Automatic annotation (TrEMBL):
Cell inner membrane recorded as keyword: no
GO biological process per UniProt: cell division; chromosome separation; DNA replication
Function: Participates in chromosomal partition during cell division. May act via the formation of a condensin-like complex containing Smc and ScpA that pull DNA away from mid-cell into both cell halves.
Gene: scpB
Protein name: Segregation and condensation protein B
Pfam family, one: SMC_ScpB
Length: 210
């Protein structure tokens, strides 16, 4: 198979996948070497950089994905608005703590935020942004939470080493997501740092009188 057909096949796979695809997986599917796939990816990325294109090719979460260009994100958001609802400030704070301190227990999250975080944690679990990664060797063996590959995908990160410094979080900022061509979205990491003023899911429980 020449480079041209491989590039077309790679573009088709990326379009229908709706999630990042590793070059190695595409090579197995197409029956060619990974080097050939990477050459096709470079050609496709170059083609997507041409003026007037609405999509671009990005490397994210250990794979490659076609996403809409940032300048068209608002139009795509308008199309997808009925399907999705923004995370609350409390959920974003909880997500920030998990991302930077994982693995972490719910009690540790609440100790940092100073409020109960059940609702925010539940929302993150339902969206697949965090998951249970084990249990802590402590009394009661509490559940440990960490981020998922979908978290990397949604926030446009290749891996956790690309997390921005906590101090660069913009408190109260709204994500400006790019939209993958195959569905879903890639959001920019925004919210508030783990030590920011907490936004409660529920009010803190009253302290017992001493």
């Amino acid at each position: 198979m020449s480079t041209g057909p491989v590039r077309g096949a790679v573009e088709a796979l990326l379009f229908v996948a709706g999630e990042p695809l590793p070059a190695s997986r595409m090579a197995r599917i197409l029956g060619v070497s990974e080097a050939v796939v990477r050459e096709a990816l470079e050609e496709l990325a170059q083609a997507c950089r041409a003026p007037g294109r609405g999509i671009e090719l990005v490397e994210v979460a250990g794979g490659w994905q076609l996403v809409t260009r940032p300048e068209y994100s608002r139009a795509v958001e308008e199309l997808l608005q009925p399907r999705r609802q923004a995370l609350s400030r409390a959920a974003l704070e909880t997500l920030a703590i998990i991302a930077y301190r994982q693995p972490v227990t719910r009690a540790e999250i609440e100790a940092i935020r100073g409020v109960q975080s059940d609702a925010g944690l539940r929302a993150l679990l339902e969206r697949g942004l965090v998951r249970e990664v084990g249990r802590k060797e402590a009394p009661g063996r509490p559940i440990l939470y960490g981020t998922t590959p979908l978290f990397l995908q949604q926030f446009g990160l290749r891996d956790l080493s690309e997390l921005p410094p906590p101090g660069t979080f913009a408190a109260g900022a709204s994500p400006e997501p790019e939209q993958p061509a195959g569905g879903g979205h890639v959001a920019t990491l925004s919210g508030s740092p783990p030590d920011a003023e907490p936004q409660p899911d529920t009010p803190p429980a009253p302290r017992a009188a001493s």
